[in-house]
Specification:
The chain has helices spanning 31-34, 36-45, 58-66, 84-94, 110-122, 137-140, 146-152, 163-170, 184-187, 190-196, 232-235, 249-267, 276-291, 310-327, 334-345, 351-364, 371-380; strands at 13-16, 19-22, 68-69, 75-76, 99-103, 128-130, 142-144, 159-161, 173-177, 198-201, 206-209, 215-220, 238-242. It is of the alpha/beta class. It folds into two domains: 13-242, P-loop containing nucleotide triphosphate hydrolases (Rossmann fold); 249-380. A hairpin with a 2-residue loop joins strand 1 (13-16) and strand 2. The chain is globular. The protein starts with 12 loop residues before the first strand and ends with a helix.
């Protein structure tokens, strides 16, 4: 099996259960696989100084995230549409010894940016720890193969290496998702790792010292239920970058359009590319309900309990495309989106239903060209 500049398979194959499977059969490719061509082109173009153990320079990482045209005419697609300065701060942070915390409301592309930063910097975005209420210290530090432990006692062979330990040993980036979902006492396991760059293994009377290039990208939000606040001791060891919601309607429409097209290809949904006007309608609904006012500023609105993020708008359009492909004429219409739109907005069946009905009556029903959306949403309520 041949590999590209960072060791990612390039012959369109991946080993699964001892067998080779084509990458195009995988439901979701890792960033370094999906964008292997762009990463390889950037590596050939990149003559700038690279921090230790980075496969691309900070300039190339920024270009990979924000998109651009190389000197040979190759076009790098944007992975993040927004303030380029935020990406520059994030990349510069990872070039130092401070960890990076991507903070913001749900659905603001924190995980997406985290994955692509890891892919561009180290060529490996898979060293992932998913934070949950059940995450314990072993998930972050290391675990044990208890069968070997009972036979041989504590030994290197019985040690189960965590993604964090593997990142430290190899000088890679570990990703820690939804850090505020992790219990506070488990969060503090990171303090020694981030401050001393060392992971003690007292059972073996040894320690793992991080190689150059090691760092941590964590994501967190303060809106979900079950949030565990981060201690000040832990926060001091992170440089925090807040990823905001898209600043304008057009910016959000561009994000949704790009992601829907990408996901549509991966899912092989046999539907026509959605018209930008349909995407704009969904984005407009979400933004008005989020802001509590119509885009013209004339009508104040009640806001539902959910965040109505860009990620949820993408989901509504994708679900609509599936409805159009398999139960419609292949073109996205209001009726294809109505159920997904209603289900996304109504999280609380009492409070949110009132908000949605009021919005339909006062805004959607009266807006020119939106009567079809009004009728379709009324049918599914």
């Amino acid at each position: 099996m041949t590999s590209n500049f960072n060791g990612v398979p390039t012959n369109n194959e991946r080993a699964i259960g001892g067998e080779k499977a084509p990458l195009d059969a995988v439901l979701r490719q890792h960033a370094e696989e999906q964008y292997a061509e762009e990463l390889a082109e950037l590596a050939r173009e990149d003559k700038r100084q690279r921090p230790p153990n980075w496969v691309l320079s900070p300039w190339a990482v920024r270009t990979y995230l924000m998109g651009g045209k190389l000197s040979n005419g190759f076009v790098v697609s944007p992975k993040y549409i927004g303030n380029a300065r935020l990406i520059e701060i994030a990349v510069a942070t990872l070039a130092t010894d401070r960890a990076l915390l991507l903070y913001g409301l749900p659905g603001t592309a924190k995980s997406w940016v985290s994955e692509h930063l890891a892919a561009a910097i180290t060529g490996n975005s898979t060293l992932l720890i998913q934070g949950t209420a059940g995450t314990d210290e072993n998930v972050i530090r290391y675990g044990w193969n208890y069968a070997r432990l009972l036979v041989d006692g504590p030994s290197p062979a019985a040690l189960v290496v965590s993604p964090m330990m593997h990142a430290m040993q190899t000088g890679k980036i570990a990703r820690l998702e939804e850090m505020t979902r992790i219990p506070s006492e488990v969060q503090d396991t990171l303090i020694t790792i981030l401050s001393e760059k060392t992971l003690p293994v007292p059972e073996l009377n040894t320690e793992v010292q991080a190689r150059k290039g090691f760092n941590v990208i964590a994501t967190a939000n303060n809106r979900d239920k079950g949030v565990n606040e981060l201690s000040s001791a832990l926060m001091r060891r992170f440089n925090t970058v807040v990823l905001p919601l898209p600043a304008t309607i057009q910016e959000e429409v561009d994000i949704v359009d790009q992601r829907v097209e990408s996901m549509g290809k991966a899912l092989e949904i046999p539907a026509e590319k959605p018209a930008l006007e349909e995407i704009r309608r969904v984005v407009t609904v979400f933004r008005e309900l989020r802001d509590g006012v119509t885009t013209d500023g004339k009508t104040k609105l009640k806001s539902p309990s959910g965040t109505l993020s860009t990620a949820e708008a993408i989901s509504v359009i994708n679900n609509g495309l599936a409805m159009a492909a398999y139960y419609g004429d292949g073109a996205l219409h209001a009726g294809d989106m109505a159920a997904g739109l209603t289900g996304t907005i109504i999280k609380d069946p009492v409070q949110d239903r009132v908000v949605w009905l009021e919005y339909l009556q006062t805004v959607v029903k009266e807006r020119d060209g939106w009567k079809d959306l009004y009728r379709a949403c009324q049918e599914v309520l």
